[in-house]
Each structure stands twice: as structure tokens, then as C-alpha cells.
Amino acid sequence: MKNNFFLVLFLLGGLFTITAQETPAKAVELNEVSIVKVKKAVEQKADRTIFDFANQPSLNSGSVLEGIKKLPGLIASDIAGMMYQGKQLDVYLDGRPLNITTNELNSFLEGMPANAIEKIEIITQPGAEFPATSGGAIMNIITNANAKKYLSATYTNSTNVTSYDRLRWRVNNSLLLSAKNKYFGWQLNLGQSYYESTLFTSLTKNENNASSILSATNADRIGRTNFVKSALTFDLDKDRLLLNYDLNYSNNSSNTIGNGVGFTTNDDSFTDGLRQDFVVTYQKKFDDKAKKLEFKFNFKDSQNDFILNSRINNTSILDNASDQKLYNAKVDYSQPIAFSDEGKLSFGALYESLLFEAQNMNVVNLDYQRQTIAAYGELQTKFDKFNFIVGGRAEDYNISGKTNTAALIPFKQFRFFPNASAQYNFDDAIYFNVNYNKKISLPSTSSLNPNNTNYQNPNVDYTGNPNLQPTIFDNYEVKLSAFDYAFIGYNVSSAKNQVVNRVLLTNDVVVNTSVNVPEIKVHNFNIGMPIPYMLFTEGLKETMKMNVNPDTMNFLYVYTAYQYHQIPDIKTNGFWMFNLMSQIVLPKEIKFIANFNYMFPKGNYVYFIVEKPMRNTVDLTFSKKFFKGQVSLSVSADDIFNSNRTVVSSYNTPLLLSNKSDSRRFGFSVNYKIPTKNKLAKEDPSLLNKEKKEESEGTLNQ
Question: Which of 106, 137, 520, 701 could be bridged to 144 by S-S, CB 3.0 to 4.6 A?
């Protein structure tokens, strides 16, 4: 009976994907390479899940952070960071790690407009080609676009409003310009983000049948972000030289009014952040397109300043700054192998150096250095219906540093990280996959930073931990997938020395910090399945006859997951998460999309116990295209019931933590493809190469 149930489940998923999710394949000849056009909102691959942002108004109407929080299976929390299907995420931007976590990461993503994003890849099984420091999984935010053989220009605007104690605005603007000729191509993406928001927080102590509010705050926040992303690519005979320069500047301010046991505050905070990223890539081309050699050098500089002033005392409370420099050089080579169908041999090497300095009141109190040397090799083979991947990555670490009082615990080790994958293909669209990999996660500099870069008051303190040690992961996963949408899977991630956020209480002072936990196992069971509505109105037989465009299909996508955090010597409970996404095409080709998220309470999220439903939100979006698709307009209403909040207790403390932002918002988004008279403009630039690395011959950013 159980087997029949799963068979029906995947038949439904396959039915929907075949009949509704793929437009007829059309080959386009580009530089003598045949590329297949595919249009999919979600794409499941053996090692990753790809979410299309560019063509989904329900995701790209606000900030990147707001869009990410709507992805099924993903948890984004100020308290516990980002996790996807039970795996802690290492966040990349255009294939390069951001090296920031939690509060800094959320602030960075909140200031980035979602309409500047093309797609997001969540790589659940990073192979040997990815750094072993990727930890459990990788979220790669891809902003680059393909250059066309004509000048292309696209303008996007997103405007939203919230109304709680007063009216607050959020406005995003961006302009994308790109062109290409037979000698070189160029791309320029520039924009700005302005958002006003509020955050209500409370920390309550419940002890001896008595309740007292240690801290209650109301923060009125303003965020300003400007960004420029530029790219040049030169064709040197068969080879290519690519130059990328990205600039991101944020200037945020906040006024926070707080009160609690023994204090009243009225404080102003100011945060300045400047990120510069420069990349040089040289790609050696061969007659055999499957053979590739690439050299890449990356320099990244990130500067942050945080100031907290008291209006009541007219004094400076905090003045903290940090500067992080990252140097990265690597080489990657791959070639096909003759003894296997679609087989490939890959290997490469990497050198990376990270320098981080933190200051408090202009006094350096953390000087941190990290050097990594790595090499990897990976073999991919295919025999009949079986695919195999086996690889290994060796990395040598040299981590040292000092505070203003003592030297840090050094970490000098050489480690080997194996990975293996086996897949059985029932046919071209249904497969069963098993994976294993060993990874390491190095503590982020924001977790190490001993200086507070958050609001604090006499009863609330944030502090980093310079002596955090790396985390070692053993990741296992099994998954059965039908086409691109329907799947059922189970994974477990076993971590040694896991870095987690802890909220502790000492003499009525709430301390937020990061600690190493000797051992944690995260179990995650998840199911995703699309259901066409016509299945209920027309029946299975008639549904199977249909071959329609996804823009005209009405369907419901169901995702559910059960997650259990296993910590030795602690009794923990698992929790269920649900996500429902419905699309209905109304008259006049107006598309209506509804999203519902819900996370059941009473489960353990590491050391936090969820006391009330989390991610409890209903989001609605109406969208329509005008003027032959040149103009796209969407109207959205997020968290319409104003139910999205976080209420958790901290394990082994009498603390109850609650926060609520102005998550109920209304707004619209406009995307305008500025018309051109060039005849080549009839070509559809949305080309997706179906290789593992999602590479494209026309892609500028690397």
C-alpha cells in the first residue's frame, strides 16, 4: 500500500511537469553550440535546487531577504541564521562566498533588491570542486545576466508600504545595461534601495511564578544601499578574459527606545558598510567543448563601522569598526573520459588568505589571519542507468591571531574530505540518488568579532567569541525525484564542534554569543509535490491529455518537512514545516499566486524552543504582462494577517524572546524592458545550459 502511494505521488508530479512546466524544447544555435531553452520556476537536480527569481513576481517584489524567506524548506532567522532542509547554509554571491553570517548577512540581503536577482541555487550536495569550508550546503545568489549582441536595457522598480504606528516606505530601483560584439562584451547593473522598517522586541524572565520584562524595545530603522555591478569580457581567439568589479555601499540608521528592569533608553545607531569585490578570470578554450581550463583571482575588501549614541546622556556608547580582506586564487581543469558515457575528470587547486581586524574605540582588539591551501580531484561516470561521482579534497589550514589581551587558540591542520554519489535513473526524468560528503565550516569573522555591532542596553549584550573552533560535518542524503518538482528525501547532518547561537542569562543581563557544541545531528525528512487543479475537475485521464503552457496552468505546490535536532544529554522535540503555493490564471491573463507558510510550535531549533508558530504568513501577488511582455506589473500583499512573528524560549534559562517586524506590507513592482530596433532583439536571452555548473557561453559575471 505504501509503495502504491509513493508511485501515485510521483506520477502526479511527473504528469504536472510534463504537461505544464516545460514549453516545447527549441534549439537555438549560438556560437556553434546548441542550447536548449527551459522555463521552470523550480528545478531539481541531483546536487542542487534552482529557484527562478527573475520570472516570479511573488519572490522579486521586495528585498532579497524577503524573497528568500518564501522559499519552501528554508529558515532565515536573526537568532539562528539560515538553514535549508536541516543544513546550515554558506551564502555565496555569484559563485563567491560572502563570509558573513546572521545579522550582517540579513542586513546585507535586506538592502539588496530582489528584482536584481536572476536565480538562486541551493547546492545541497557540494562536490570536491567546492571548498570544503562550504559546510552543510551552499546558497548561491546569482545576479548575472547574459550579454546580447545588441544593447539591452531593463529598468525595474519596487515600491512597498507598511502601516503600523506610522506609514513606512520601501523603494528599490535598478537598471541593467548589457551589450556584446565580436571583440568584447560589457554589462552594468546599478541600483539603490531605501527602506523604512520597525522592529518590536521583548525579553521576558519567567521565574518562581513571577514574570518580569528585562528589555522591551521599539526600533525605528532606515536602510540605504547603493550598488554597482560591472563586467567586461574579451574574446581572445578561442580563449576568454573576464573582469568583474562590484561595489556595495550601505548607510543604515536606527532610533531605538527601550525600557526594562532598572533602565530607560533612547539611542541612535549608525552602520556604514563598504564592500568591494574584484575578479579576474581567464578561460582557456579547446576544440572539445567538454574540456575546460580556468584561472581565477579574486580580491575582496569589506569595511564596517558601527556607532551607538545615547540621546538621554548625549554620549557615545559604542564605536566599533572592522576591516576584512580576502585574497583567493584558484585553477580548475576538467576533461571527458573515454571509458564512460558522459564521464568527466576534474581537478584543481586553491590558495586563500583572509585578514581580519576589529577595533573598539580605535583600539585593535582582534587581529585574525587565516590561510588555506587546497587541491581536489573528482571523477564522474555514467554506465547505462547508473551515474557515479567520487572525489576528494585536501585542505591545509593555518589559523592564528590575537586579541588585545591574549593569543587565540591556533588551528593548524591538514584534512582530507571525501565525497561520493550514486544515482539510478529509472528514465530521463525519474531517479534515485544517495550522497555522502565530509565538510568543514570555519567560524565567520562576525562570530569571532569580540565587539558588539548590534543595539545593546544595560540588560542586553551581544558579543563574539574569538576562540571558536571549526566545525566538521558528515552529510548523508537519499532522495527519490520525479522530473523537476516532485521529490521525497531524507538527510542527516552530523556535526562536531557545531557553532551555534546561545542566549544566556547572568544577573538579569541577557548575553547573546556563539559557542561550540561538541556534537549535533540534524535529521530532515521532506516531500514536495505539484497538484494540477484540473485533476479534480477533469479527472486523471483528461489531465494526461493536456499539453499547456505553465502561464495558463492552475496548480497547487505542496511542500512539507519534519526536522529533528538531536543534541546529546538534552531532550529535544522535532517540528513540522509546511509551504503551500497556489497559482491561478484569472481572466485577461492575470496571474494570481498565493503563498502560505507555517512552522508548528514546541519543537527545538538547536537551543531554542519554538513557543508559537513561526513563518506563519500568507502572501498574495497579482501580476500581468503588457506590450508583448516588455512591461511586467505585479501587485503584492505580504503577511496579510499580520501573523509572522518569532516567539522562542532559550533552553535551560527562564527567558522568553519575542520579536515582531512590520511584515505586513502592500506594494507593486514594475519591470520595463526598454525596446530596441535591433533585429537580433527577437532572440530570447533566457538561455539555460543544462550542465552541472549551470555555465553559459554568454554569461559575463563569474
Answer: 701
Q: What span, in angstroms and rounded, lies between the C-alpha atoms of 541 and 50?
A: 31
The one-letter amino acid code at 492 reads V
Q: Which residues contact 451 (CB under 8 A, 6 or more apart)?
A: 306, 318, 320, 322, 358, 359, 360, 365, 366, 464
Give CA–CA dist 140/90, Å, rounded.
8
Residues in the chain: 702
Please give, one letter per residue, the 3-state secondary structure of 579-620.
EEEEEEEEHHHEEEEEEEEEECCCCEECCEEECCCEEEEEEE
For 281-329, how does the pLDDT look when each residue is reduced to its tens digit (9 = 90+)?
A: 999 988 887 788 999 999 999 999 999 999 998 999 999 999 999 999 9
Q: Which amino acid does the sequence have at 258?
A: G
Neighbours of 696 (CB within 10 A): 18
Answer for the pair 356, 368: CB distance below 8 angstroms, yes or no.
yes
| Nine cell digits for residue 86 | 536541516
Give ∠ CA 435-488-572 in degrees, rounded to 5.
80
pTM of the model: 0.76
What's the rounded Cα separation, in Å, for the pair 477 and 467?
Answer: 32
Secondary structure (H, E, C), 333-345? EEEECCCCCCCEE
Instruction: Using the Cα atoms of residue 146, residue 147, residue 151 and residue 153 in order, give the sign of their dihedral.
Output: positive
Structure-block grid coordinates of residue 244: 568583474
Alpha helix ranges (H) inside 18-101: 57-60, 64-68
* CB-based burial label for 294 (10 Å; 0-12, 13-18, 19+): middle
Task: For residues 215 and 478, give the distance between their C-alpha atoms in angstroms, rounded to a whole number.
Answer: 45
Please tell me the distance from the alpha carbon of residue 58 to that of residue 398, in angstroms, as a whole number: 45
Strands 631-638 and 665-674: antiparallel
634 beta partners: 623, 669
Distance from C-alpha of 43 to C-alpha of 550, rounded to nearest angstrom? 14
pLDDT tens digits, residue range 502-554? 898 988 899 888 889 999 999 999 998 888 887 777 776 666 666 545 556 78
**568 exposure class (CB count in 10 Å sphere: 0-12, 13-18, 19+):** exposed
The rounded distance, in Å, linking the Cα atoms of 604 and 616 is 17
> Is 272:108 a contact under the CB 8 Å cutoff?
no
The whole-angstrom separation of Cα 192 and Cα 172 is 6
